[in-house]
């Protein structure tokens, strides 16, 4: 026992002591990480990973479509990303005759590659530390609310000013992005180039690319071949251009050789990509709220919605098709929050943060810096107490009204339409209305009033009984959920697209009159009104105070813990994370190996199942052990592996690289027990999940027979395979 306490105390000494933790800025990589990376096993000079003035690995990494990462893997602009990142594009090209989601798609030559309007990939040309410039501007510019330092539109203006002052060349394909780091203590400008002629090249069937679907999502051991392929096209001069049949494959500055050498436990790995959002420096009070109040509320709401939808989807194929993608989206974060909550508890994240805060306070006092930092923690404590009920109410509103009850979310769009009329007048109203109608058409295509009615009944009951009573509108006070459901679904025109069109037919006055007589609309309006009046203003007020405190807290952490591994929270900018291939212990007496094999697909195989079916060709290849040059030295086909890289949402599709900068895998997920890494990273249980590059090559080569793609890549084979 005593030993245990000592151990806990020792490991509490600092917030971050783990060599694997962190999502690092490329510009600071050399100063902050060169030594640690070399110690972990990096074999190339750090300047090859990132070089401000020349070529480096970053020149092969793209922001894919805005939310994911991708990488160039041939001299002819071939881009690799996840199946779940290419999903929208694959869906967009699918129809009854060509169901590429089900059957997969492979372009056997360039002419067969499919232009994908709307899809872009973005390269970073330069990254500049503009902290001093931004601070000067902040001092000069009016800022009545004191929020300029975080405002995207303000920072966008500053970026343009800077570009002008510095004569930075701007083309139509240039994008400037200026973002705050370390809570607003540093600023970086990204100068980027956007390519918009992107064509679909290859995707395995969902029974490979999405194998295991939601049941296996966020889980290890995993057997998903989560990859797809695209190609960047450019004009004849290699410059970005809109789609044209005369465009040619883009020649990249750098592309990743693909390694068929394989990995072993403890090998060095690094992942370069676009992590979306983390909150690693939240005070304990905030984490407590997430663990005890916010996550449980959100999980309960989604749990109820998902159970209803799942019941219908299992019985009715048409509903399954309508709801599959929505269900996956809702289930994704539902499952993540469950894992996150468990992980935060199990790792004692709150106690660790509290201990860190004690140290922080001590160091502040010792340095005599009470004036600047002395009350931060007490202020945080008070603010998080004050915001609690508002934050809970906000999550109920977001999850019930905006996200999971479809009829309420439709109604909320109309509520906003009424606000447009009130604030901007008839013309703006009409513009918005026409936009809404075309958007609604798509939404209603995948809408089942039967499903939504049952979801509504559950969620409105949760809203009325579990969200803070003092903010509830009259309409929900002591409401009988089942009677309300019958009344709303029995009469509201919002339950069908035709009904909606009827409501929206006519001039603004008559539309608003009809809306305000509709029972569904009336309910949404009462809920939204009371949220806007009773919750949002106060939430925003306290939240702003917390954001400002967080900035000062971050500054203090950097000042008083200079030897800690302090990295800026993820903010959808390019980062590097590194670590080692490693298994883990999810629970007592269980040990997970770091590598999964094709054998696991066969073990999980359920013929005809929508998550675990397996294509016949893959089974045949497995039975014949026909793995080409991609088997490991024991003749087995490796499929996925895990490592200690610190990743988050947005890192999907990121290249996993070996010590030499060759591609060994494709990042796509994290393990369930470690999803708390967005708030607290523990090297014991936080792992990212990657598809093994060998499996990707095997599927392209042996399963799809797309030798054309294999030939254009530079593949690094192990010695034993070289002669073949
Ligand atoms: N959990 C992964 C990520 O957050 C994969 C999500 C896609 N798959 C799914 N079954 N929803 O993006
Ligand atoms: N699956 C996530 C993504 O799509 C990655 C993660 O959260 O680990 O970006």
Global structural class: alpha+beta
Summarize the main sheet. 11 strands, antiparallel
Low-pLDDT sequence parts: 1-16
Mean pLDDT across all amino acids? 95
Rough outline: globular
Ligands bound, unique? arginine, aspartic acid
Discrete helix count: 26
Helix amount: 40-55%
Number of strands: 23
Which band does the percent of strand residues land in? 15-25%
Radius of gyration (Å): 27 Å
Distance between the termini: 58 Å
Structural commentary:
48% of the residues lie in helices and 15% in strands. Strands 2, 3, 4, 5, 6, 7, 8, 9, 10, 11 and 12 form an 11-stranded antiparallel sheet that branches. Helix 10 (284-315) packs antiparallel against helix 11 and helix 10 runs antiparallel to helix 17. The termini are far apart. Residues 1-16 have low confidence and may be disordered. Bound molecules: arginine (ARG) and aspartic acid. Residues 647-652, 668-670 line the site of aspartic acid (ASP).
């Amino acid at each position: 026992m005593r030993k245990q306490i000592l151990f806990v105390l020792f490991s509490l000494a600092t917030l971050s002591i783990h060599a694997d933790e962190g999502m690092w800025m490329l510009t600071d990589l050399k100063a902050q990480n060169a030594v640690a990376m070399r110690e972990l096993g990096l074999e190339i000079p750090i300047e090859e990973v990132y070089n401000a003035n020349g070529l480096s690995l970053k020149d092969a990494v793209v922001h894919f479509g805005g939310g994911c990462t991708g990488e160039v893997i041939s001299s002819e602009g071939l881009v690799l990303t996840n199946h779940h990142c290419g999903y929208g594009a694959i869906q967009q090209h699918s129809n009854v005759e060509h169901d590429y989601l089900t059957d997969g798609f492979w372009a056997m030559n360039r002419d067969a590659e499919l232009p994908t309007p709307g899809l872009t990939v973005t390269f970073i040309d330069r990254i500049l530390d503009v902290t001093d410039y931004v601070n000067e501007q902040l001092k000069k510019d009016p800022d009545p609310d004191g929020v300029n330092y975080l405002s995207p539109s303000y920072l966008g203006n500053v970026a343009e000013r800077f570009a002008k002052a510095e004569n930075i060349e701007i083309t139509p394909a240039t994008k400037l992005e200026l973002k705050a780091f370390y809570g607003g203590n540093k600023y970086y400008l990204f100068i980027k180039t956007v390519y918009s002629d992107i064509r679909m090249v290859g995707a395995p069937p969902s029974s490979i690319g999405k194998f295991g679907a939601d049941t296996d999502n966020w889980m290890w051991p995993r057997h998903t071949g989560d990859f797809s392929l695209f190609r960047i096209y450019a004009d004849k001069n290699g410059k970005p251009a809109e789609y044209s049949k005369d465009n040619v494959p883009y020649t990249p500055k750098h592309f990743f050789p693909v390694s068929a050498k394989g990995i072993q436990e403890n090998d060095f790995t690094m992942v370069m990509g676009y992590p979306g959002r983390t909150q690693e420096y939240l005070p304990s009070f905030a984490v407590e709220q997430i663990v005890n109040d916010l996550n449980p509320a959100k999980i309960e709401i989604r749990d109820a919605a998902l159970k209803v939808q799942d019941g219908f989807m299992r019985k009715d194929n048409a509903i399954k098709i309508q709801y599959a993608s929505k269900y996956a989206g809702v289930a994704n974060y539902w499952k993540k929050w469950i894992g996150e909550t468990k992980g935060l508890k199990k790792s004692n994240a709150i106690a660790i943060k509290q201990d860190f805060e004690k140290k922080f306070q001590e160091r502040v006092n010792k340095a005599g810096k009470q004036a600047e930092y002395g009350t931060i923690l007490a202020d945080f404590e008070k603010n998080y107490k004050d915001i609690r009920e508002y934050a809970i109410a906000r999550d109920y509103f977001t999850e019930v009204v905006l996200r999971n009850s479809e009829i309420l979310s439709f109604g909320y769009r109309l509520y906003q339409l009424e606000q447009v009329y009130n604030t901007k007048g008839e013309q703006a109203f009409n513009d918005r209305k026409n936009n809404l109608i075309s958007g609604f058409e798509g939404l209603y295509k995948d809408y089942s009033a039967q499903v939504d009615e049952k979801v509504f009944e559950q969620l409105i009951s949760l809203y009325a009984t579990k969200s803070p009573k003092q903010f509830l509108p009259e309409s929900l006070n002591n409401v009988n959920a089942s009677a309300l459901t019958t009344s709303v679904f029995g009469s509201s025109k919002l339950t069908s697209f035709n009904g909606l069109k009827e409501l929206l037919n006519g001039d603004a006055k008559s539309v608003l009159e009809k809306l305000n007589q509709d029972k569904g609309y009336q309910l949404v309006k009462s809920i939204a009104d009371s949220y806007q009046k009773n919750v949002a203003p106060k939430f925003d007020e306290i939240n702003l105070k917390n954001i400002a405190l967080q900035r000062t807290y971050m500054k203090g952490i950097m000042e008083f813990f200079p030897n800690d591994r302090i990295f800026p929270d993820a903010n959808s900018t390019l980062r590097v994370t590194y670590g080692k291939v490693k298994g883990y212990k999810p629970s007592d007496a269980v040990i997970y190996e770091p590598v999964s094999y094709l054998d696991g697909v066969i073990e999980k195989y359920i013929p005809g199942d929508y998550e675990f079916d397996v294509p016949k060709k893959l089974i045949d290849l497995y039975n014949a052990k026909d793995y080409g040059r991609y088997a490991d030295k024991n003749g087995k086909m490796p499929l996925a592996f895990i490592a200690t890289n610190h990743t988050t949402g947005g890192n999907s599709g990121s290249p996993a690289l070996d010590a030499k900068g060759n591609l060994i895998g494709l990042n796509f997920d994290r393990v369930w027990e470690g999803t708390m890494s967005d708030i607290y990273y523990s090297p014991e249980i936080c792992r990212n999940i990657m598809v093994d590059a060998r499996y990707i090559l095997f599927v392209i080569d042996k399963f799809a027979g797309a030798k054309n793609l294999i030939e254009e890549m530079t593949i690094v084979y192990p010695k034993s395979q070289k002669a073949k």
